[in-house]
Amino acid sequence: MVAFAANSVLNRLALADGAIGPSGFASIRLVSGALALALMVWVRNGASSSSQFGGITGPLSLVLYIIGFSFAYVTLEAGVGALILFGGVQITMFAGAILSSERLPPTRWLGAGVAFAGLVYLLWPGGAAAPEILGAILMTAAALGWGIYSLHGRKAKDPLAATAVNFILAVPLGLLPLLVFPDVLPITFWGVVLAVLSGVVTSGLGYALWYTVLPRLDASIAAVAQLTVPIIALAGGMVFLGEALTLRFLIAAVLVLGGIAISIRR
User: Fold this and answer.
1) I want to staple 36 with a disulfide (CB 3.0 to 4.6 A). Which of 128, 140, 200, 261 is the partner?
2) Counting beta carbons within 10 angstroms of the beta carbon of residue 193, is it exposed (0 to 12), middle (13 to 18) or buried (19 or more)?
3) Taking the CA of residue 239 as centre, how many other CA atoms within 13 Å lie in the half-sphere pointing to its CB?
4) Average pLDDT of the chain?
């Protein structure tokens, strides 16, 4: 969850500073992640590396998430974007849990509702206009992609290799926006640094770790756990950027963490 929160911060920082455009960021993120993961698998396994191809679901859902995420933050505010993303992810993964006949006790529904209410309380823009429609659609698509990617990851037998294959196969599609919708902004050195950090560390390694954890979690628990990401991101802003600690944040953090505690309680 810390990796996911850092990933959001890197993406928003790159676009907000004008260091790079959404197409360039998404493409560099995918390519750098694919190269780093392929190298790690090769170092670990050498010539005996076996294929971990698990179909096209993983690569396609990864591309949908990364591209939708990058372009959505061009027009959406950070809080609204996070609310749409993690609300959509929760709905997608709960739907997947129901379709797979996963048992969902009443406490899990209650906990999910409390945690999501805390996120809405924290991120809903008081008195603000409705979010820009295209940005909202793109972030909803990103949420669908990430939810499917997470559900698919529960089947991974070799998380590092499976993540590497997903990234490598996603690269050709991930480069299309750079060709079809080239950025107006030039690609700067700082933009490349942020995109590579996002691709190698918070995406590549973070997603491999996520694929390691997922088989041990129910889909609904994994969905609820991800509601901590905006809380962690805002807490990081307080620690590293000197942002103020507010009562609104404390109340929301208690609701989100309390809701997760209710969901995972046996």
Assistant:
1) 200
2) middle
3) 7
4) 85
Amino acid sitting at position 187: I
Sequence length of the chain is: 266
Is 47 a residue whose pLDDT tops 70?
no
> CA torsion, points 195, 200, 203, 209, in degrees to nearest 10?
-170
pLDDT bucket at 54, cuts 50 / 70 / 90: low
* CB-CB contact of 192 with 240 (8 Å): no
- Residue 93's nearest CA partner among 240, 263, 266 is 263
pLDDT of 153: 87
**How far is it, in rounded angstroms, from Cα 35 to Cα 254?**
40
Average pLDDT in the 59-78 region? 88
Rounded to 5°, the CA angle 40-225-80 comes to 100
First to last CA, the chain: 22
- Between CA 49 and CA 58, with CA 53 as vertex, the angle to 5 degrees is 130
Structure tokens, 238: 């307080």
Quick one: tokens of 183? 């950025």
> Cα(116)–Cα(107) distance, rounded to whole angstroms?
14
